[in-house]
Design brief:
Blueprint lengths: L2 H67 L1
Length: about 70
């Protein structure tokens, strides 16, 4: 193998490694975003459940109170 061929292979290897590092960095960014979105989605589900429980509790208080007024 000639020096030129070795140099070409080394350049190709360096380019490939650079692309791999860039891909890994990009992947980690999206992983972080996905984790943040998951946390927000979990928080939203918790708030919805709390709202539903509060609405049910209020409904249980209001219906008997209004039934007693008629």
């Amino acid at each position: 193998m000639s020096d030129e061929e070795i140099k070409a292979l080394q350049d190709k290897l360096a380019e490939t490694e650079s692309k791999l590092e860039e891909s890994v960095k990009h992947s980690r960014e999206w992983e972080s975003r996905a984790k943040a979105n998951k946390a927000k989605a979990d928080e939203l589900e918790q708030l919805k459940a709390e709202r539903e429980a509060t609405a049910k509790e209020l409904e249980e208080r209001i219906i008997p109170a209004s039934a007693g007024q008629t």
